[in-house]
């Protein structure tokens, strides 16, 4: 068996940094890695950054301005041939460093076998044995936002390489060319016959199978309360309901419920893939969802967001905070005395007041610009 030290010796010492960043789990987790990727590029702009991601998030990795190349991870369930092919690819790329934001034994083993000389990961579980730079974070305490934990790991890699981290980048972590949002809004308006002058409130009622979320009935109550408050200010929002794969029936049911109550609501038709869906969100004046991938896409785009979170320690609003500006971020959870996943205990009237105030500020700022 080839040792990691002998493979590492074949890496050129004078080549520009080539960094492998691993975030190969869910969509929301991947979007919260973008601040760390931006951190790496800010401190080492000459570096080539490759991302190891699952096929599902690859379309967004290919859109990320901080990623130069994408490598598809076949996953834990792939056979030996696929794992061997991935290992050969990692060896051929001659990486100078590896930053693992989500550590598993398989990925750690691959990085070690590929001979990547500098390997950084959280000091958690026995997978850390494959890394030569282990960072103690104790993420299970949920004392910081996930994206900040990721930034700290990126800074640890830079320091291990003898570099001084640059000042931390600020939102948006997914910057887009000027006019992108306007073009998307006009395109969707033409597609669905919508009024571009009205506030557009996107609402994603699905959970992606992982997040505890409000029920469609609760979302209908919330939308009614928000709509009523905005109507008092002579603002009449357009509700656009989004859905992930398999979630379309939920969106249609909610749309019918809102329509029956007199609200202007439509279901956003399926887009041409995940990247097209993500860019469609730029048309929103505010995005409402549980702690799901789409919410974190919106945060990365620095859109105003309203997120609904359980009180469970591993899933708190602090831990899974969106990475947009603080002034554009709202979060709602059950009170401490309620059950940790008792989303029915969330005060929807208070949430509606906060959301309508944020929409009003957004509309006022837009009209002044």
Automatic annotation (TrEMBL):
<protein>
    <submittedName>
        <fullName>Lipopolysaccharide heptosyltransferase family protein</fullName>
    </submittedName>
</protein>
<keyword id="KW-0328">Glycosyltransferase</keyword>
<dbReference type="GO" id="GO:0005829">
    <property type="term" value="C:cytosol"/>
</dbReference>
<dbReference type="GO" id="GO:0009244">
    <property type="term" value="P:lipopolysaccharide core region biosynthetic process"/>
</dbReference>
<dbReference type="Pfam" id="PF01075">
    <property type="entry name" value="Glyco_transf_9"/>
</dbReference>
<keyword id="KW-0808">Transferase</keyword>
<dbReference type="GO" id="GO:0008713">
    <property type="term" value="F:ADP-heptose-lipopolysaccharide heptosyltransferase activity"/>
</dbReference>
<dbReference type="InterPro" id="IPR002201">
    <property type="entry name" value="Glyco_trans_9"/>
</dbReference>
<dbReference type="InterPro" id="IPR051199">
    <property type="entry name" value="LPS_LOS_Heptosyltrfase"/>
</dbReference>
């Amino acid at each position: 068996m080839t040792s990691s030290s002998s493979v590492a010796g074949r890496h050129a010492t004078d080549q520009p940094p080539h960094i492998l960043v691993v975030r190969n789990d869910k969509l929301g987790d991947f979007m919260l890695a973008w601040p760390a990727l931006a951190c790496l590029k800010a401190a080492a702009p000459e570096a080539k950054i490759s991302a190891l991601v699952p096929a599902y998030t690859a379309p967004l990795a290919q859109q990320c301005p901080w990623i130069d190349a994408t490598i598809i991870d076949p996953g834990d369930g792939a056979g030996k041939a696929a794992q061997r092919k991935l290992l050969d690819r990692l060896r051929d790329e001659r990486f100078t460093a590896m930053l693992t934001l989500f550590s598993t034994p398989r990925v750690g083993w691959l990085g070690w076998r590929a001979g990547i000389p500098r390997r950084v990961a959280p000091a958690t579980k026995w997978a850390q044995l494959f890394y030569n730079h282990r960072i103690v974070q104790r993420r299970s305490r949920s004392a910081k936002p996930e994206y900040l934990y990721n930034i700290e790991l990126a800074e640890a890699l830079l320091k291990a390489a003898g570099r001084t981290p640059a000042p931390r980048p600020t939102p948006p972590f997914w910057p887009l060319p000027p006019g992108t949002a306007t073009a998307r809004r006009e395109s969707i308006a033409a597609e669905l016959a919508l009024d571009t002058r009205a506030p557009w409130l996107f609402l994603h009622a699905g959970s992606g199978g992982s997040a505890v979320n409000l029920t469609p009935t609760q979302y209908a109550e919330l939308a009614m309360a928000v709509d009523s408050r905005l109507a008092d200010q002579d603002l009449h929002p357009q509700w656009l309901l989004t859905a992930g794969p398999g979630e379309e029936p939920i969106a249609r049911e909610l749309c019918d419920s809102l329509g029956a109550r007199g609200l202007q609501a439509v279901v956003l038709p399926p887009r041409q893939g995940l990247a097209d869906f993500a860019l469609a969100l730029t048309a929103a004046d505010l995005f409402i969802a549980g702690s799901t991938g789409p919410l974190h896409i919106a945060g990365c785009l620095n859109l105003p967001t309203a997120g609904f979170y359980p009180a469970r320690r591993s899933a708190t609003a602090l831990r899974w905070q969106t990475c947009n500006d603080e002034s554009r971020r709202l979060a709602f959870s059950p009170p401490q005395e309620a059950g940790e996943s008792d989303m029915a205990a969330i005060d929807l009237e208070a949430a509606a007041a906060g959301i309508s105030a944020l929409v009003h500020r957004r509309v006022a700022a837009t009209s002044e610009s």
